[in-house]
Amino acid sequence: MSSDSGKIMMLTTNHAPGYKVTKVLGMVYGITVRSRGIGGNFMAGLRSIKGGEINEYTQMASQARQQALDRLAEHAASMGANAVLSIMFDSTEVGATMDEIIAFGTGVVITPATETAQPVRLS
User: Fold this and answer.
1) Single pTM value for the model
2) Annotation: CATH topology of 5-112
3) Domain residues of the chain, as ranges?
4) Which residues does 99 contact at the CB level (< 8 Å), separation at least 6?
5) pLDDT, tens digit, for every residue of 26-38?
6) Which of 67, 60, 65 is nearest to 39 (CA)?
């Protein structure tokens, strides 16, 4: 991950347990477009004949998702967010050999929640 992503709490949930949202900054996103390339397509084609996982595509997908997350964190940081809630991914095929991967969520400012209620003592 990039250095910016280490400063941003990134969650797939709608809230951050133990924190309260003090400001909603809006949608943030990170996009990358990756080409599968001729060599990768050739090797994947050979692997698809016998079946099983196609490692070249698995690696490409993993790297693309990480890059999209890194860019999402950079976008959030540039807006002043310290957290991103409700992170999701989407992907679209662009042409015959390219994929667009987008990570998106809601950029927010969070602070630690403080207890307002006193503990209940049982007699």
Assistant:
1) 0.77
2) Translation Initiation Factor IF3 (3.30.110)
3) 5-112
4) 33, 34, 36, 61, 64, 91, 92, 93
5) 999 999 998 866 6
6) 60
